[in-house]
Specification:
By secondary structure, the chain is an alpha/beta fold. 42% of the residues lie in helices and 16% in strands. Bound molecules: pyridoxal-5'-phosphate.
Length: 430
């Protein structure tokens, strides 16, 4: 493969030296990044919006718990159970600090972003919404922030309204005021689009909703890993995110809820751990956060998430954001140099390290398959955002998404492989 984009690897490496973050300092911690594919291509992992990779420190934390400190939590009075309970609760405190919540009672461990939204829709939504009430979503939501509300609407007779997007991939904020009214009971919005990469002005949306007494749920699946979160500064009522997109294990996520709201909500799932007392004729629920953590929780996964937060804090969220800005700006340049590439979404300054694109005449899956031949992992399809794709008049896009361990050289390799892709298809069609 020849690199027909404008600069050499050594030039790219020189630019990287001046970057806000040196990926080469961190890459050795990620064993999977040294994978070589098809016997000659080093893995170029550009599917970070789907899930990130894990550093040795996170993997070791899982092994360490299983090997030396594993027992069920909150149940035993034996030494081992105390060890695992302490580590599990320490992880909750790390999450609290990471998002600046007031208290660990506001941190509910879930199995992921999707479960967090379902918890709110079932527990809060079933109690609060009735026929004719409205839920405001946006056209750029992930299915995880659409389907639970559609299910709620079906159960209650509530109506879903949609904040539109503009042609350049922003939210059409001028439509917001006219969509909020006395029937609106919730605004549920993503802070960052998993397709467009757009960073949404959620503080402004929260202020507008709160001015009318409407609570806001923030889907932070794509923002927590790349920009961090300050729930007190934002003032959101519910915030959800998952561990696996921020170096942590799968099967662990976080629901932050304002304590006043969580206290009024009934449990989502019933069973052990979420009760204070059970009689034959009923039960009393435990205090927060246990009320929402029925059954044996994802103990080791939560501890692994704590290790991921330690690691991210060491790298620095603001350095991660600044460095991703470099990567995504370079990606826009490289894709422009390839030619015939249509990038979906805003300019680099308004987004994180996500670039979704189409090449007319070549299907997204074909692009991804050819990139895979060069060891480059990207995602192709609707990315769990079918309404957004429909709105854009597309059925599928190819998405390259970056994290702080990606390099400028890897971005250039993406450009070179896309050149090859175009050549292969031109040859095929001539
Ligand atoms: C914006 C957004 N919301 C929600 C989700 C769902 O996350 P999970 O599948 O980890 O529950 C994703 C995952 O891609 C996402 O990007």
């Amino acid at each position: 493969m020849t690199d027909e984009t404008s600069r050499t690897d050594s030039q790219a490496a020189a630019v990287e030296k001046m970057a806000p973050l040196d990926p080469e300092l961190w890459r050795p911690d990620f064993p999977i990044l040294s994978t070589v594919l098809h016997e000659k291509y080093p893995l170029v992992y550009l599917d970070n919006a789907a899930t990130t990779q894990r550093p040795r420190q996170v993997i070791d934390s899982l092994v360490d718990v299983y090997e030396t400190k594993y027992a069920n939590v909150h149940r035993g009075i034996h030494w081992l159970s105390e060890q695992s309970t302490d580590l599990y609760e320490e992880a909750r405190e790390k999450v609290r600090g990471f998002i600046n919540a007031r208290t660990t009672q506001e941190i509910i461990f879930t199995r992921g972003t999707t479960e967090g939204i379902n918890l709110v829709a079932r527990s809060w939504g079933d109690e609060q919404l009735g026929a004719g009430d409205e839920i405001l979503l946006t056209e750029m939501e992930h299915h995880a922030n659409i389907v639970p509300w559609q299910q709620l609407a079906k159960r209650t007779g509530a109506i879903i309204r949609w904040l539109p997007i503009t042609e350049d991939g922003h939210l059409a904020l001028d439509a917001l005021e006219s969509l909020l009214n006395s029937r609106t009971k919730l605004v549920a919005v993503t802070e960052i689009s998993n397709v467009l990469g757009t960073i949404n002005p959620v503080a402004q949306i929260i202020d507008s909703a709160h001015a009318r007494g409407i609570p806001v749920l923030l889907d932070a699946a794509q923002s927590a890993p790349h920009r961090g979160l300050d729930v007190q500064r934002l003032g959101a009522d519910f915030v959800v995110f998952g561990g696996h997109k921020m170096l942590g294990p799968t099967g662990i996520g976080v629901l932050y809820g304002r304590r006043e709201l969580l206290e009024t909500m009934p449990p989502f799932i019933g069973g052990g751990g979420m009760i204070r007392r059970v009689r034959k004729d009923g039960f009393e629920t435990a205090d927060l956060p246990d009320k929402f953590e029925a059954g044996t929780p994802p103990i080791v996964e939560a501890i692994g998430l704590g290790a991921a937060i330690d690691y991210l804090t060491k790298v620095g969220l603001s350095a991660i954001h600044d460095y991703e800005q470099m990567l995504v700006s370079r990606a826009h340049e490289v894709l422009a140099a390839v030619g015939d590439v249509q990038i979906i979404g805003p300019e680099p300054k308004d987004k994180v390290g996500i670039v979704s694109f189409t090449i007319p005449g070549i299907h997204a899956h074909d692009i991804a398959q050819i990139l895979d031949r060069y060891g480059i992992a990207v995602r192709a399809g609707h990315h769990c955002a079918m309404p957004l794709h429909k709105q854009l008049g597309l059925t599928a896009t190819t998405r390259a998404s970056f994290y702080f361990y990606n390099t400028l050289i890897e971005v250039d390799k993406l450009g070179a492989a896309l050149m090859e892709t175009k050549k292969i298809f031109r040859r095929g069609s001539s």
